[in-house]
Amino acid sequence: MIKKKKFRLFISGLVILCLSSLCLSAQNLSGAWKLMNINGKPFAEESIKIYSDGYFMVGVYTAEGSFVRAGGGSFKTNGTEYTEVPDFYTDDSTLVRKPLTYSFSLKKDELTLSSEGQKETWKKVDDTSSPVSGAWRFGARVNDEGVAGQRRGQDSPRQTMKILSGNYFQWAAFNYETKQFSGTGGGSYKLQGNQYTETIRFFSRDNSRVGISLTFECRLDGTDWYHKGKGTTGNPVSEVWEKVK
Which of 21, 58, 141, 229 is the most exposed place for a label (fewest CB within 10 A)? Predict the structure, then answer.
């Protein structure tokens, strides 16, 4: 298990150094990254971190899919510095909404993060090439007539967020004001026409759901994403999500 000090580095933002101008580009962060090793030793667990639209999420789980920890929030770059502000952090909720700033180095698609004697190596494993790639905020439930209920809005501290690269996804529910974490899950997905299918790789609420696939009817309408199907409990789900700008 990673010690808390190490995991604070682990959830640090991944920043890309533009070699031509020695500057950072938040846009180049978009996609999914896998943690390969810490201090030269292979990382014993699994971890994918996804960036898009100024937001990130990261999950840690065992090879069998048992949930270990997760974090996520907003990020920004300034020169060669990267700062993220967690909206949730399962190992230490006192870090929620506290800026954490780090530096990094990059060679092609390999990122090295160094801080407080710890050195981590990450590899980019996915870009953002899908129509649903990006960061999304849960908007509202949708009734049988296709009409959405009252939307929660971006100003509410209670949020459910989902972030997707070209092939990976993660969602999380939290309240950054009370620092309450309600759940997270993630894995891979496929989009074929109007069919969106998620395959769960980890799920904090129920490890027994790992490996199952869920298929939804998918429809994009401007910055809204509608999807309808059955959730992990088998109950009907019909929702609209809003693209984070």
Answer: 21
